[in-house]
Each structure stands twice: as C-alpha cells, then as structure tokens.
Amino acid sequence: MSDRIFGFFGLALSAFYFWATSIIPDSFMIDVVGPRAFPYIVGTVLAICALYILLRPDAEPDWPNLMNFIEIVFATAVMFLYAWTLSKVGFVIATVFATSYLTWRLGSKPLGSLITGIATSAGIYVVFHLILGLSLAKGPLGF
Amino acid sequence: MEIFSNLADGFAVALTAQHLLLALLGCFLGTLMGALPGLGPANGVAILIPIAFTLGLGPVASLILLTSVYYGAMYGGRISSILLNIPGDEPAMMTCLDGHPMALHGKAGEALAISGIASFIGSFFATWGLVLIAPQLVKVALLFGPAEYFALFTMAFATLGGVTASNQAKSAFAAALGLGIAMIGSDSQTGSERFTFGHIHLYDGIDFLIAIVGLFAISEVLIFIEHHQGGAAAKSSAKIGKLIPDFCIFKRSIGTLVRSTIIGFLSGVLPGAGASLGSFLSYSVEKNTLDRENKTFGKGDPRGVIAPECGNNAAAGGALVPMLSLGVPGSGTTAVLLAVLLQLNITPGPLLFRNNPDIVWGLIAALFIANFMLLALNLPMVGLFTRVLLIPTRILMPVVAMISFVGIYGLTGSTFDVMLMVGFGFGGWLLRKLGVPLVPVILGILLGNEMEVNLRRALQISDGDWSIMVGSPLAIGIWAIAIAGFVLPIFFGKKVKNQMHADHSEVEMEEVIEGGD
Fold first, then answer.
1. Closest approach of chain B CAs to the CA of A140, in angstroms?
2. Are residues A46 and A17 in the same domain?
3. Contact state of A72 with B429 under an 8 Å Cβ cutoff
4. Domain that holds residue A105
C-alpha cells in the first residue's frame, strides 16, 4: 500500500514537474535545444518510474508505530525551529535547546540532557568560533 | 617515467607541515567515523566538507583532509565489525564473518592487527593502481565528445545500484528526482529562470552540499531517534588481547592478499561495483579456493579477515580512478568526493590532469602518506578507537547534527538553507523507509547540470539531430554497458544480495547456538 501511495505522489510530482517545465520562459538567448527539453526528459523518467512503482509495489516497509512517527515529526520540527530562531536568539542559546531536546529524546535523563546541551553548545562555540574562526549566528547578546 | 616525476612533484606539494597535519587529522577523524556505527565514510566526508570550506583551506589542503577521512573511514569500519559484530559501514560487513569469531576466541587484538595490515596492503597497491591506470584512462577520455559524456553520465546512473540493486524503478526514480532538483535555478545556457517560482533563494539553484548533508547526516539522526538507539555501541571496554600478529600468517596468505587486492581494485574501478562488492567478492573467492569443505571460514580464519579488508580498501583506491579521470563517481562516497571537487571549482576529467597536475599528484601523494599514517595509527592506537565505541549515541548523534548545522550555516550564512537542509533530512528519512536509495539523488543533483550541458552541446553540434547521441561506436558501447548494467540486476540482483545476507546471518545464527551451549 505504501508503494502505491508513493507511486501516486510520484505521478503527481511528475505532472507538477511537467507543468512547471511548460511555463519556463524563453530568454533572449536561444540554443537549439532550449531550456525545456531536458526537464521534459527528466519528468518522463519520473512518471514512468512512478507508474511502475504504483503498479508493481514492493513489500510493505517497516513503518514506525504512531508514537515513534510523532517522535520523528517532533524532532524535525525542533530542528526547523532551531534553524528559524538561529538568527534571532543566537547560536549558543538555540543550540543548547536543540541539543538538549535531541539528547533527551534519544534517552538521556532531563538533567543529563541539559548538561549535554550546554557542553555541546559551549564546545562547538569554543572550537569552531574562538579557535577556528568560523562565523556562527549572532544573537542579541553577542553570541 | 613521466609518472615518477609527476609523483615526485606531488610529494613536494603534499610534504608541507600544514598538509601533513591535515592528513593526520583526517586519518584520525576518518578512523573514528568509520568505527562508529551509523557514521560511514560518505557521512563523515559530507559533514566535514562545509567546515573545510568555511575554514578557508585551499583546494589541495581540503582535498588532502577529506580524502584522508575517506581512507581512514575504510580502515575504521573493521573495528566494530570485529569487536561487536556490527559493521561500522557497509563494506565492513564481510569482516564480521571471521573477525567476530576471532574476537570471541580471545583473539580480537590479533584480528584487528591482521586486518589493519591487510587494509594497508590493499590500499597501498590500489593507490599504485590509481597512479598507473588513471593517466591511461585520461587518454581514453580525451576521445570523448559531448554525446559520449552524456552516455557516460547515464551509465553512471544505470550502474550505480550495482548488481545488488533491489528495485531498479526506485533507483531510476531517485536519479530523476536528483536531476530534477539540479534543474532548479537559472539555466546555464540561456539564463531562463527554471522552477524558481519567483523565490529569490532559488535563483542560484540548490547548493548540493545542503542536499548531501541533509540526506545523509540529518536523516541518520532521525533513524536513530525512530529506533530510540541511545545507548553506546559497546557495553563495556572490550578485551583486545595481544596486538602483535603472527607474521607467518602473511607469509602463508600471500595468495589471498594478491587475489583480494586485484579483485577489490577492479570492483572499485568498474562502474556499479564499489567497496561493498569488492569485499564480498574477495571473501567469496577465498572461501571457494581455500576452504571448499567449509571447515575454517566463518569460524575465525585469519584469511577470512584479510580477504575482505584487503578487498574493500583496494576498492576505495580503485573507485578514485573513474572519479578523477572521468568525473564519474561509482559510489556514494566518491560522489561526495566529487562534491568536494565541484565545490572547489575543479572539474575532474582529462583537463584536471593537464591543467592542475599539482592537485592530482599532490592528492595521490597525500594518499600514500595517509596510508602510512593510518597503519601507524591503527596498530598501536587501536585501543583508543575501541574506546570510542563506548560513547553513547544519544550524545553523539545530536553533536553530529549540530556540527552539520554549523557547517551549512557557516557556508551560506542563510537560515533558509539550514531549514532546507532539515527538509532534505526528513525527505531522506521518508525515502529510506520506502526503499529508495539516496545516492542516485545526490549524484543527480551533482551531475544534473553537467549532463544537460553535454546533451545540449551535442545537439548544437548536430544541429538538433538526436541521432548524434548514438553516433559513434564509443557512444554505442557506453549505451550498451549502461543498458546491461540497468537490466541485469533485475534478474540477478536478488540472488547476489540474498547470498551476501545469508552469509552474514549464518554467523549470527551460529552465535546464538554457541550462546545456548
């Protein structure tokens, strides 16, 4: 069933790709092939493969149960949030929270996760920013 | 003898204090990453690419650092195979078969030492193979026109899954997905905006490093979270025992070493084989020639450790041949190394050998140096690396994620790109669950524009006549290989793959039985 849904989405994706290819504007420079030919080929391959997957699905993959799936979605959301707040609160604070969350969800105790978060954040800041001179996101507090 | 003078120049480039230090650092980090389950060579190199660039290392310096990581990871994979029966990376799977039984018999140190030396011999001679064969292949590559290059790229995709590919439709889907992503941004020939939908961040296209780090590193973190694998790989510090091997073993297994090096090297060079197949073939050949009655192999025969380790390290060297001389990688890790070159604005291929001999030969010299360093690191210091296995992944994986973030943010300075990377991470997790391989996606993103440019150039030459794509014997030959490489696994893939896994689970079964005694 998963592969059928996947194949269906693949077909939808290739249809979208065809549509997006068809609206590529021509520019004042022109070559024999044009900017649309190769994307059409790619879209065709995409559609054929999706159709094959739809019609000849593999055995059902080993999906996580609902709890674990929510776990994955939350972890992704936390990482998104991390990226989004990075420039607002600065690298050090954002990293403490993101690392603590991930460490906690991988099985550390809450206090242990917080310590890991602080240590990771400080460690990366010292090694990559102070020693190696990489630019990290600056927050209102200057770090 | 031109080769030797080139090589001497290479050593002159590589033997500076900074380069040696970077090679040492790379070897050390590489062995660490190879040893840790979940952080293979491709992952390790991918995470370090953005860091190497933001640090402002020059092309030669970054290449030396990252290829040392690549060689190091190939060495490191064996450590957890032998001690824990968990392959650190895929090519190290076959090392479990005899390495772990040796460890169970209290000969872990010996197994580690033997495999370390076998790795050294395999990669040392494979690096010589690279020196001798790559310049020859470059001469062939000079005959290639755009149509042949287009066919060659297609062949790279068609054979990427190798003989073990389980579902070719999914591999091809992955490749098309990658190519489709590569099309985003302004068209290199005419400047038309493609698939940007007026979004300013997309005008330049999607940086392949964002996709690579997201697909490899972030999706790996998600896999660990899904399975709640927070514990350490090893429960307690493993007893290693004596480290000095019986050198007579090597005298007795010269045949094994020679055969495994050749088989490994060839599977590295040939499209669609790679290190995993290299170690599998070396092991099977040795098993069939030395142990027909199934008496010692799989029960802790040192030759069963030598063959796969020698084979997979030889394949690592061999895989650099097509990558450097044609610009066509044959495996995930070499695809990542290609990303390194592209990021440095170096186009691999014949022109690289002609225009930047210092880079090519400096790199090759660095490989020799790295090899000796790895031997030195891996024999006396193997105890240190085994202790790394005690670090729990609940601390390790978040650190890996954060270093990936730091690298991408440092490279682009844009939070949009970091979010995009997380998106790739989730997408990568989903695709992995569905059994869609990620390497073709990455190769598609890397090669997409180059492939299109060659197609358009070919048609420009023929004035729009598509028959130029099969217009020369060379092109027809490449297409034939591509089609064969794509179609054959449909019939034989399952068989080979089952064989590989059957061998592996056989050992696990025996362990259960032994445990029951």
1. 16
2. yes
3. yes
4. 66-131
Block residue for tokens 């992704």? A76
The tally of CA atoms less than 13 A away on the side-chain side of residue B288 is 8
ipTM of the complex, rounded to two decimals: 0.93
Query: Do residues A40 and A70 both lie within one domain?
Result: no
Mutation site for B-interface testing, chosen from A33, A84, A104, A135 by largest number of B Cβ within 10 Å: A33
A45 within domain boundaries: yes
CA distance A76 to chain B (A): 7
A103 part of a folded domain: yes
- Does the beta carbon of B52 lie under 8 angstroms from any beta carbon of chain A? no
Taking the C-alpha atoms of residue B185 and residue A24, their distance in angstroms, rounded to an integer, is: 11
Q: Give the one of A62, A108, A133 whose C-beta lies nearest to B230's C-beta.
A: A108
Q: What is the pLDDT of residues B296-314, one digit of tens each?
A: 887 888 888 888 889 888 9
Read off the amino acid at residue B127: T
Total number of domains in chain A:
2
Measured CA to CA, the distance from residue B209 to residue B66 in angstroms comes to 14
pLDDT digit string, tens, across residues A85-128: 988 898 999 999 999 999 998 888 899 999 999 999 999 999 88
Residue A60 located in a structural domain: no
Please check whether residues A9 and A43 belong to one and the same domain.
Answer: yes
B interface mutation test: which of A18, A29, A102 has the most B CBs within 10 A? Answer: A102
Determine whether B430 is exposed, middle or buried from the number of CB atoms within 10 Å of its CB (0-12, 13-18, 19+). Answer: middle
Query: How far apart are alpha carbons B69 and B89 in whole angstroms?
Result: 14
Cα separation, B77 vs B245, whole angstroms: 19
User: Which residues on B lie below 8 Å from A58 (Cβ)?
Assistant: 166-167, 170, 435
Task: State the alpha helices, DSSP H only, in A33-65.
Answer: 37-55
* pLDDT at B427 exceeding the cut of 60: yes
Measured distance CA(B409)–CA(B431) in Å, rounded: 25
* Cα separation, B35 vs B244, whole angstroms: 21
List the 85-124 stretch of A: residues with Cβ below 8 A of B.
86-87, 91, 95, 98-99, 102-103, 105-108, 116, 120-121, 124
Alpha-carbon gap, residue B63 to B66, rounded angstroms: 5
pLDDT digits (tens, 9 = 90+) for B315-337: 888 888 988 888 888 777 888 88
From B351, B323, B326, select the one nearest B337 (Cα to Cα): B323
CA distance B228 to chain A (A): 5
Instruction: Give yes or no: residues A35 and A83 share one domain.
Output: no
Residue A138 lies in a domain: no
Task: State yes or no: pLDDT of A133 exceeds 90.
Answer: no
CA dihedral B318, B440, B277, B125 (to 10 degrees): 10
B231 — contact with chain A (CB < 8 Å)? yes
Sign of the Cα pseudo-torsion (B395, B400, B405, B410, in order): positive
Tell me which residue in A20, A29, A76 faces B422 most closely, judged by beta carbons: A76
A102 to B398: CB separation less than 8 angstroms, yes or no: yes
